[in-house]
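Re: your question from the hallway

Yes, I did run it. Sequences:
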Amino acid sequence: MSGAAPAYSLRELRERYGGEVIGDADLRVSRVATLENAGPDAIAFFANPRYLRHLQTTRAAAVILGPDARDAATVPRIVCENPYAYFARVSALLNPVRGTEPGVHATAQVHPEARVHRGAEVGPFAVIERGAQVGDGAVIGASSYLGEAVRVGEDTRLYAGVTIYARCVIGDRTVIHSGAVIGADGFGIAFDRDRWVKVPQVGAVRIGNDVEIGANTTIDRGAIDDTVIEDGVKLDNQIQIAHNVHVGAHTAIAACTGIAGSVRIGRYCRIGGLVGIAGHVEIADNVEISGHTGVTRSIEQAGAYSGVYPFEPNRAWRQNAAQVRHLAQMAKRIAALEDAIDRLRSES
Amino acid sequence: MSGAAPAYSLRELRERYGGEVIGDADLRVSRVATLENAGPDAIAFFANPRYLRHLQTTRAAAVILGPDARDAATVPRIVCENPYAYFARVSALLNPVRGTEPGVHATAQVHPEARVHRGAEVGPFAVIERGAQVGDGAVIGASSYLGEAVRVGEDTRLYAGVTIYARCVIGDRTVIHSGAVIGADGFGIAFDRDRWVKVPQVGAVRIGNDVEIGANTTIDRGAIDDTVIEDGVKLDNQIQIAHNVHVGAHTAIAACTGIAGSVRIGRYCRIGGLVGIAGHVEIADNVEISGHTGVTRSIEQAGAYSGVYPFEPNRAWRQNAAQVRHLAQMAKRIAALEDAIDRLRSES
Amino acid sequence: MSGAAPAYSLRELRERYGGEVIGDADLRVSRVATLENAGPDAIAFFANPRYLRHLQTTRAAAVILGPDARDAATVPRIVCENPYAYFARVSALLNPVRGTEPGVHATAQVHPEARVHRGAEVGPFAVIERGAQVGDGAVIGASSYLGEAVRVGEDTRLYAGVTIYARCVIGDRTVIHSGAVIGADGFGIAFDRDRWVKVPQVGAVRIGNDVEIGANTTIDRGAIDDTVIEDGVKLDNQIQIAHNVHVGAHTAIAACTGIAGSVRIGRYCRIGGLVGIAGHVEIADNVEISGHTGVTRSIEQAGAYSGVYPFEPNRAWRQNAAQVRHLAQMAKRIAALEDAIDRLRSES
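Structure:
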């Protein structure tokens, strides 16, 4: 979210982030924009060929693009290997995050045995229970809740309305958006005769450094051992991570995905939205899973995996989906036909 | 939610909303009920043929129904073109919403540079940051949070525990339910060498008039331009709308659906629950999508679309689902059989 | 969540919960652990054959296991019929839940016409509206909200940030986790000419005894009659239950599942995660539904049901999924081949 926007010349950007400047290096930009909606003080980026026509008509002052596209634009431009990542850095420069304003709001309830670093910011109506610790530069948003013995690292930011249950640990420079619930009880129930018996969830959640957790995402505490989110993991909104899941470093997961208990996900995986992963499954490093896929078995090889029934106009879908129920029978009929053909051939 | 229920005669209802009264027009009703559970002071409606038997045995004082069913009941009744919409209006009349009680609760934290209309109501523990504006007749529920420069229109109602991030704009007469988070950062990350770099999300969210947003729904702010929800859109609970999505006016979306970044949805669409729509897809006006469908390509024609694997008893499903993995091979075997038949025929 | 852990001998456990002790019955355990990570003061359990190797190498002081596995371990052990349920009870004994600390926090806003039992605990920034009732031993977590005339039973626990809309009723010994929203308006809208008309949601939600509701789960109030969750139901996180759903006693539902309006689910059902159940469907008792299944029709027989497209490596999936669109045509081609074979046979 932007504060007052400073301005930088293309030369200054090159000095900070590298790349090659083509055109007027003294040209200054003060904000980012899309190719389509840019005004004359803005810098845009080009990374998706689908928007080539916007590149050619953009009113942006300057554009960031890759070597392949260096001649596809006429405006001043920065050519670099990874335009999207370059743009991310320029945008962060032009849109500095509001800094921490140290101090505890008068209305916040901080237990006398909690330790809040004097460089931390605690918003109105926040509750910090006994034994909790908040590091230097951290921000605890309005109406957030830190249970007993929770630890929040340095420069970590909790937006308004985040809940962290007792004994969970959050690393440094991590961002947690509103409505996220970290450390609620895992869904541990044992069926006994005629009713469910609750299995106490005595583990916690450990979240690493440089993690981002989206709005209304839930991460349950472990049943016995801890649920673990390693460094650099990026979680979108409304993701559910069940007890004792382990997510490897730098894995990114899109919104609405549900991960069942004791799943182990490798490093550098990319998982789409609305994916379901069944309990106890193990997923290797560098696995990519398309949105809406149901993963019911372990994946041992890096690579891309998919599984979603393709959509169709309703009438076609009804006819094709009806045949799904006859697939096993169709396979048998085909085999029988092959036999019949063989016999006819041998007779003729 | 109902307050004290007034009573109206069928004649009065006809004067307000039209339709034809059959039977005693002076009969008064004071509350709505289902056909099945109605008591003698209640008015019910009949719109779904599945409940015909309940129509014939209802103890309701009166019933609202369509022209086709005018003779299917013997109780006093109102015949109209759209019984469900008619019922909605009668129910709103009999169950007036609790009015706004103007004033700011003593515990609320309103920044001195925020502007709250004196006709607005702000509940306990609400936080309203610098530069935010709240219109006449609006209600900001308990423990809700309005970030810097947020604007909330007239007669808009936020229930308890709604979070609106900085600079988002909400129109008039819009309703937002508890736990909804509007304007959290979109999931913008660029992979660079060995880690993800955050792309600042500098757009906002603009929500129109007469919108309804369900509990725990999340709508992310735009990466650069804004995320837009047009007038009259109705969103159920636990929907995820990613950055830069555009939802056209009067579209309705059922619960748990996830819409990825930069999707553009037309006007008057009806989208079922647990639907996933992939990034950058465009959907025309008047499209209907069945629940649980994964939409991976743009839909250019109005109409109904579906895509969900039909469920079956476990054993049958296991046999049929196994064949899904051989579909491409089955298609080849069928083609080979057709060739063989052709050859045999030409030989015989 | 654990407090200070007491210690018990295996003999004491047998006296409380039955079973047979093999080995040193005076051996004392003070905490639970997994087989894999247990230390010498811990008791673990063995129920899943997948972890047999951990059973054989565990450093646990004692293990709980079933009759089949009585000789698969050498450490002191308790043999019983249902090791997981036995373990649940032992864990509850060793990890007593923090007791209720009666009293209303100074910052809580309790309406003078609300009735909070003096044995109940109300946390900071909680809001309790007019006519609400809170029973003996109940805990209302920080920043939770109870609307008008809400009733919360005895020994029921709401964690921080739970929202209950007006007139909903929660039974005894029920647990509701953070971010859950009970009683928001159902998604009732009637289309009229060119816009949606809201159907007032005048029912409420009734939740029984011994229910557990996960973080960020939403249960909507009924349109006319109530939404009902019977005794002993267990709901995981981020579940959506629409208006007028009825969930039978002792049914358990995993995370992210969405249940549309007026669905009726039987008793003792087990429903997986990310399942979608279409409106007005009825499901018998003792039905089990696999994760990710879309249920579009009623299920009248107890048993297990599934429906998810199996996932595959991307290339194979693309080829097979393409054929899904030709299934109806494939069925016709197979029938034509069968006819052709019959004719060829009769000719030869």
